[in-house]
């Protein structure tokens, strides 16, 4: 495999929700840089396809079906990772219900759907962190990236609520894990042109959305990779508890 660089040669990473879209780009970027990657997704077939692609390109990957809202499933994912690759250095909490999600208001959304949604989009990051941190600590530390969104600072019903929760979870966990030398940060993308996004945001609305972005275009998964690789690398060794917007300037916050 032609490594972009080899900075992650000895590292082992778990990327949840990596059977497609942004998660797939994250998994492939790690493999390109030498990491062994666990491609974890609730869609086992999609995970297998991405992992097979990484292996075919000369990388190291293991596909693992996971339901991030289920502690037993998350524990099995970590156990499989340790069994296959001898440890865990990086956890990327990217899994979320997004593509095809219901559009509704907090006041009217079906309560069971709301609870399921939060159990994946917010609690899932904590479930996976709880499953993985002891293995990370055993390696002398590591890094966690949580997937946030600019929706955290906008009206976007239960989706925005979950992402605001992810931001707070990132900050809270950075305090609990810092002494173990485990860093926790979040990336908050703006609108990214993925299949999942196209299934939620109608094309006409995407045009309106682009008008609100100073850099005047939708983002791509590749636009996120610079920040992603940086935050996992030793270059970010003194950065934890932070949320980084990669959004074409969509959100102004101070």
From TrEMBL:
Keywords: Oxidoreductase. CDD domains: SDR_c. GO terms for molecular function: oxidoreductase activity, acting on the CH-OH group of donors, NAD or NADP as acceptor. Gene3D superfamilies: NAD(P)-binding Rossmann-like Domain. InterPro entries: NAD(P)-bd_dom_sf, SDR_fam. One of its GO terms (biological process) is fatty acid elongation. SUPFAM superfamilies: NAD(P)-binding Rossmann-fold domains. Belongs to the short-chain dehydrogenases/reductases (SDR) family. This is Short-chain dehydrogenase. It comes from Mycolicibacillus koreensis. The lineage of its organism: Bacteria, Bacillati, Actinomycetota, Actinomycetes, Mycobacteriales.
